[in-house]
Design goal:
- The chain has about 270 residues and is mostly helical.
- It folds into two domains: about 10-30 and about 255-274, no CATH class; about 60-235, Up-down Bundle (f41 fragment of flagellin, N-terminal domain), CATH 1.20.1330.10.
- Helices cover about 70% and strands about 5% of the residues.
- A two-stranded antiparallel ribbon has the order 1-2. Strands 3-4 form a two-stranded antiparallel ribbon.
- Strand 3 (about 145) and strand 4 (about 155-160) form a beta hairpin.
- The protein is rod-shaped and about 140 Å long.
């Protein structure tokens, strides 16, 4: 039936053209963003999963920063402890020299002055071995903790090592000195014990630092794996989208021509009235 009131062909052509335009818009969005799923309306389930994984990646970034802070704090403590160990070795040398009974008083006094200067340097190192306001070797904190997982429910703890003079590790008193060979010998014995204690303390700090670094490596790998997973879920295949874009552009042009042909169909009715 020929009619000018209802053009079914034009309706179908318009529906198909609108569908092509929508698909073309979707492809252009994917090319612009690089994402096949850039919003919840693209795919609600995949978008929700990707957002959850993005939250985990952001959490692991915070974990990595926390570990970096802890590692730096422990490394500063280690540097201080190693410096104290070197000083104790020098102090032991001075004390052993002062323990020589054949040494004259003036020489022993000179050695004692060197001994006291080194002793005081230990206190200076202990008080300044801090990072970001945290000192692990002056007994000001019991421990430090670093985040271990993305939700903050687990942590890694490194205990304080009190390296202050007269403590349980460095047993040499803050006023230690010697005026006689016997006193010098006593100090040498105390320093030897302190060196043994300090070696064990440095080993504990070193183990803590190594644990933090190992976990940071793991966190980095885990974060990378999550990012790859997000990419697998939402990234667009641009080579495929490029081919699809060309196909849709041709389809769009054909749709416009089909609509034009359908719209011109009613004009043929004029031929019936010539």
């Amino acid at each position: 039936m020929a009619t000018i009131n209802t053009n079914a062909g034009a309706m179908i052509a318009l529906q198909n053209l609108n569908k092509t335009n929508m698909e073309l818009e979707q492809v252009q969005t994917r090319i612009n963003t690089g994402l096949a799923v850039s919003s919840a309306k693209d795919n609600g389930g995949i978008y929700a999963i990707a957002q959850s994984m993005r939250a985990d990646v952001a959490g692991y970034s915070a974990v990595s920063n926390s570990i970096d802070l802890a590692v730096s704090t422990v490394d500063v403590a280690l540097a201080g402890g190693e410096a104290i160990s070197d000083i104790l070795i020098e102090m032991k040398e001075k004390a052993l020299a002062g323990a020589d009974s054949s040494l004259d008083t003036a020489s022993r006094t000179a050695l004692n002055e060197d001994f006291k200067a080194l002793r005081d340097q230990i206190g200076t190192i202990v008080s300044n071995a801090e990072f970001n306001g945290t000192n692990l070797i002056d007994n000001s904190v019991a421990s430090i903790t670093a985040l271990a997982n993305a939700d903050g429910s687990n942590s890694i703890t490194v205990l304080d090592e009190n390296l202050s003079l007269g403590g349980s590790i460095v047993t040499v008193a803050a006023t230690a000195s010697f005026a006689t060979s016997a006193a010098a010998s006593t100090q040498a014995t105390a320093i030897a014990a302190s060196l043994d204690n300090l070696s064990a303390s440095l080993a504990r700090l070193g183990t803590g630092s190594k644990s933090l670094e190992i976990h940071k490596t793991f966190v980095g790998k885990l974060s990378d794996a999550l990012e790859r997973g997000i990419g697998n879920l939402v990234d667009a295949d641009l080579a495929k989208e490029s081919a699809r874009l060309q196909s849709l552009q041709v389809k769009q042009q054909l749709g416009i021509q089909a609509l034009s042909i359908a719209n011109s169909a009613p004009s043929s009715i004029l031929g019936y009235f010539r």
